[in-house]
Design a protein that fits this description.
Blueprint: H1 2-23, E1 34-35, H2 87-107, H3 119-141, E2 185-186, H4 191-209, H5 213-219, H6 222-237, E3 240-260, E4 263-280, E5 286-288, E6 295-306, E7 312-318
Antiparallel strand pairs: 1-7, 2-3, 3-4, 4-5, 4-6, 6-7
């Protein structure tokens, strides 16, 4: 009896779960993380108060993942105990010299030209032998001094303070500076930059909701443009249309901002609200979402600019 009751309860619970999943509106928004963040594409951006959860690294990107190159020219080389090429020969010659001199003195012949029979000559020969041996050992056993291996010159880049003025939804929180990527340095974000980020948020959302390809090309990089165009094309194939309107920035913080290879990057944690619904392209009926109630979304948007050009959206990450 108990087993039958348990099975009936389990079946009812599963039926309710399936029913809830069937009637619950699916998220009309795009999913995943896409785009490029320069050399930091494969690195997760630092967490902020706006986006406290650690966001994953960009998953869909055209930026190849490369292992950091090692500077083999300046890397310290292990010391090797390479024997002196003259070491064996020198020892043999000196050994022969010593043996020959001593044998000659014992036989009373000395060193040829220094031949003599008296004790004085023997002492002179021994002194000469000792001097030659000392000089030869000093010459042959002397090792060239190895210069210390030069390492990579370490220069610490001092990060410029990030602007935290309460302007355009940007909070006053200044996040800790993340470790700099190779060949990059931190930069400051101005109030004008913050206004550009907020404007681009609204522009991209509105252009996407109206399927305005021309406006999207101006606001985004070619890579992001290709991803958004693909999503709009898939919606059209299914006979749907993702409408986004009324975008309003609620809170934003600079997660990190840096420059590399002549381009500036800024990753911004954004919390915003918008009316996000999926409609049938023919009838206009709402398929998912609520046209009367805005939804709140938190994402990390990365912007890029070349030189003194305009900022453009280059990556979107879920937070």
């Amino acid at each position: 009896m108990t087993g039958t009751t348990f099975r009936n309860a389990s079946a009812i619970a599963m039926s309710l779960a399936i029913a809830v999943m069937a009637v619950s509106p699916a998220d009309a928004r795009r999913g995943g993380s896409l785009g490029s963040r320069g050399s930091r594409t494969a690195v997760a951006p630092p967490a902020t108060k706006t986006a406290p959860n650690q966001a994953p690294a960009v998953q869909r990107t055209a930026t190849p993942t490369q292992a950091p190159a090692q500077n083999t020219a300046s890397a310290p080389r292990p010391a090797t105990n390479t024997p002196n090429r003259f070491g064996g020969l020198a020892k043999g010659l000196i050994g022969g010299l010593v043996a020959g001199g001593l044998l000659g003195m014992l036989l009373g012949n000395g060193f040829g030209a220094l031949n003599g029979s008296g004790m004085l000559m023997a002492l002179l020969q021994m002194a000469l032998l000792g001097g030659l041996a000392w000089f030869a050992f000093r010459m042959f056993r002397r090792r060239p001094a190895l210069a210390p291996a030069g390492g990579v010159a370490s220069s610490s880049f001092s990060a410029s303070p990030l602007t935290g003025a309460s302007q355009g939804g940007f909070g006053a929180f200044v996040p800790p500076v993340a470790p700099s990527a190779p060949l990059s340095r931190e930069i400051a974000i101005t109030t004008s930059d913050q206004q550009s980020f907020e404007r681009l948020l609204v522009e991209v959302q509105d252009a996407f909701g109206h399927e305005d390809y021309a406006r999207l090309r101006v606001c985004t990089t070619p890579e992001i443009m290709s991803y958004l165009a693909e999503e709009m094309s898939q919606n059209a194939t299914r006979g749907q249309r993702n409408e986004v309107s009324g975008t309003e920035l609620l809170e934003a913080e600079v997660a990190e901002a840096w420059t590399e290879d002549g381009a500036d990057y800024a990753t911004i944690a954004m919390r915003y609200q918008s009316i996000d619904v999926m409609r049938d392209r023919n009838s206009g009926a709402v398929l998912t979402g609520d046209p009367d109630r805005p939804t709140v979304t938190t994402e990390l948007w990365t912007f890029v600019r070349s030189g003194h050009g305009a900022w453009r959206l280059s990556a979107i990450q879920e937070a």
